[in-house]
Design a protein that fits this description.
Number of helices: 4
Distance between the termini: 94 Å
Radius of gyration: 27 Å
Length: about 500
């Protein structure tokens, strides 16, 4: 009798849950789309810009307020599109946006002023997805959205792997995200984050390289950015093959939101929200932990033997857009990684599963990097603004290789290295919009670079390590530049610039 009663109780509970799930699924889930509209060249807020939700019936939209902000509430979740228009400016259309129930869709939209303003005309056409964010670029530059990093096959939410799908660009191999641009070496790529030249932003990245197996850049914190393959504007003078100009988005300045997800790249937790709703101040932070390391701790074997990729990374941004002294933001990213490929500890009964193992060597590799920076932007007047950036970065790469004597199975030391780069990066520029046709940007970049480089190889005859490299020193790199943009017509633009570099190490 007790068994029958227990079964009936379970059955009724099950039916109640099914009814609740069905009832929830029948509800129309909605979310909010909001953001800010500014002038692309002067960063001034545009008041009264029209924002329309595409394919809405009846047509829905909003108008920007005195701070350039707009909000469209109760939008059904799914794929949506918006159109932003303002008299005297070129329209911006954003299509196929993923609106989810758990997170508001927030945009900072930049409009570019037209040269001639006359009678109103309606022009229909498709948006050029390749249009860059940096308007000083004309050719060989492609703007990309965070959404694209999730869509390209094999991108693994990695901007570098995504870029390998573009014309003229290819990857080196599937296990690393180095990219070859028009046949140039991957080391010629410049990574720039929030206006700062940064070291290799990848786990297990060697000093002087630009790629690695897993990216430290987390696309949950990235904003729309630029990828350049040639014809760089003057501000990117220290690049040979390509430039990744990465932007970090600001946190939600109205509501607190939290993130938790598990993927190939790791276990992630994140949070964002307002610090001061009155001043639009916000924060965003994300932490990630290696998936394979987490599963190894749970006793799950993925066939990597003792070679478990261990890494962690963190990224954050704190934004104060409204202060008496201008707009301030503090940002940072960092990652630590290590792996031990120990041939001496492999399981000989599972020979085929240890695919990370070398032949006759034990390899221990580690790589750590961190970047923290502070930016300040100040609007002098409606046509002029300045930006100052100061940051510090560190990149350390270590390797330990031991050889294994097969007959006696003795482990002998062979090679050691410890390479460290420390950099203080400062940048200042002033941007002036002379008219709807002419704008100029001039600035200077100054780097203080410290290198500590040591490596050695074991000498069997001497019974000790022979030093190959032992260097510790500091040098400086100065980079002033100026660039000018001339819009001859709305369809024809001339960009010109000059960049100078002076390396104090050899005064050339």
């Amino acid at each position: 009798m007790k068994t029958i009663l227990s079964f009936n109780k379970f059955f009724l509970t099950f039916l109640s849950l099914c009814f609740l799930i069905t009832n929830l699924s029948s509800q129309n889930l909605t979310q909010t789309i909001r953001g800010k509209v500014i002038d692309k060249n002067t960063r001034v807020c545009l008041i009264g810009a029209n924002v329309v939700l595409l394919d809405s019936d009846p047509l829905r939209g909003s108008t920007t307020d005195i701070d350039g902000k707009f909000k469209i509430e109760n939008v059904p979740i799914g794929r949506v599109g918006i159109k932003v228009s303002y008299l005297g400016y070129s329209d911006v259309i954003l299509n196929n946006l993923d609106l989810a129930s758990a997170k508001e869709l927030i945009f900072n939209i930049e409009l570019e002023e037209k040269i001639y303003v006359g009678k109103e005309a309606v022009i229909s056409g498709s948006r050029d997805k390749s249009a860059p964010i940096n308007r000083m670029t004309t050719v060989s530059t492609r703007g990309f959205t965070v959404e694209e990093t999730k869509r390209y096959a094999g991108s693994r939410n990695d901007v570098a792997r995504m870029a390998a799908n573009y014309a003229g660009v290819r990857g080196v191999s599937d296990d690393r995200n180095d990219i070859i641009i028009r046949g140039n070496s991957p080391t010629g790529l410049l990574w720039r984050l929030e206006g700062v030249d940064i070291p290799n932003p990848n786990h297990y990245g060697a000093l002087g390289t630009t790629g690695g197996p897993v990216s430290i850049l987390n696309n949950n914190l990235l904003d729309n950015s630029d990828f350049m393959t040639a014809a760089f504007p003057a501000e990117y003078g220290n690049a040979l093959s390509g430039v990744f100009d990465i932007k970090m988005r600001n946190g939600n300045n109205e509501n607190h939101e939290f993130l938790g997800q598990v993927g190939f790249n790791g276990f992630e937790i994140g949070a964002e929200g307002p610090i001061s709703r009155k001043n639009d101040a916000s924060y965003i932070i994300n932490y990630r932990y290696s998936t394979l390391e987490a599963f190894d701790a749970l006793g799950v074997d993925f066939g990597t033997g003792t070679a478990i990729p261990k890494y962690q990374d963190i990224a954050l941004k704190i934004n104060f857009p409204k202060t008496k002294l201008g707009s301030f933001s503090l940002f940072g990213i960092g990652g630590i990684s290590d792996i031990s490929m120990l041939e001496s500890d492999k399981d000989t009964t599972k020979e085929g599963t240890n695919f990370y193992m070398g032949e006759g060597f034990d390899l221990i590799n580690g790589s750590d990097m961190a970047v923290v920076g502070l930016t300040h932007m100040y609007l002098i007047n409606p046509t002029t603004y300045t930006k100052f950036i100061i940051s510090g970065s560190m990149h350390n790469f270590t390797t330990q290789i031991d050889s294994i004597v097969p007959d006696i199975f003795e482990i002998l030391p062979w090679y050691r290295n410890n390479f460290t780069e420390r950099k203080i990066f400062t940048s200042f520029f002033i941007n002036k919009k002379l008219s709807s046709q002419h704008s100029i940007k001039t600035g200077v970049i100054f780097n203080t670079m410290n290198f500590s480089l040591t490596d050695s190889v074991f000498n069997d005859n001497k019974g000790k390590f022979d030093i190959l490299t032992d260097y510790n020193g500091t040098t400086y790199l100065l980079q002033p530049y100026a660039q000018w943009k001339y819009k001859i017509t709305d369809a024809l633009t001339l960009n010109a610039g000059l960049h100078y570099q002076h390396l104090f190490l050899n005064n050339t």
